[in-house]
């Protein structure tokens, strides 16, 4: 019988260390597939979980951040303000890896305008 060898990234973490809460999203919406790819990318990149800040607005995109890297920082802001939150977090702590999750309306309509000053 073959024994499975756990693969660790450069930080000594396994892929499960980058997972979050069990999803409550609809199976066919695509968010779960995207979340799995985010988990893989963060694992492969060796991002330290405590140095990750997950920013989002409201709606489905706000739930997405709960489904990866349980031990990271997270903040749900007002609708359309994720870009400003992410920018502010990065300016406050340049060591952070900042991930922004936004729905369809945030970038083209309300969100990016709040970043332009």
Molecular structure report:
This protein has helices at residues 31-45, 60-64, 82-92, 106-111; strands at 52-56, 73-76, 97-101. It is an alpha/beta fold and 117 residues long. It has a three-stranded parallel sheet. Helix 2 (60-64) links the parallel strand 1 (52-56) and strand 2. The mean pLDDT is 84.
* Mean pLDDT across residues: 84
General form = flat
Strand order of the largest sheet: 2-1-3
Radius of gyration: 16 Å
- Contiguous uncertain segments of 5+ residues: none
Measured between the Cα atoms of the first and last residue, the distance is 63 Å
Strand segment count: 3
Class from helix and strand fractions: alpha/beta
Task: Name the beta content range.
Answer: 5-15%
The helix/strand order is: HEHEHEH
Number of helices: 4
Helix content: 25-40%
How would a textbook summarize the main sheet?
Answer: 3 strands, parallel
Outline of this structure?
By secondary structure, this protein is of the alpha/beta class.
Summarize the helices and strands and which ones pair or pack.
Blueprint lengths: L30 H15 L6 E5 L3 H5 L8 E4 L5 H11 L4 E5 L4 H6 L6
Parallel strand pairs: 1-2, 1-3
Relevant terms:
alpha/beta; 3-stranded parallel β-sheet; 3 strands; 117 residues; 12% strand
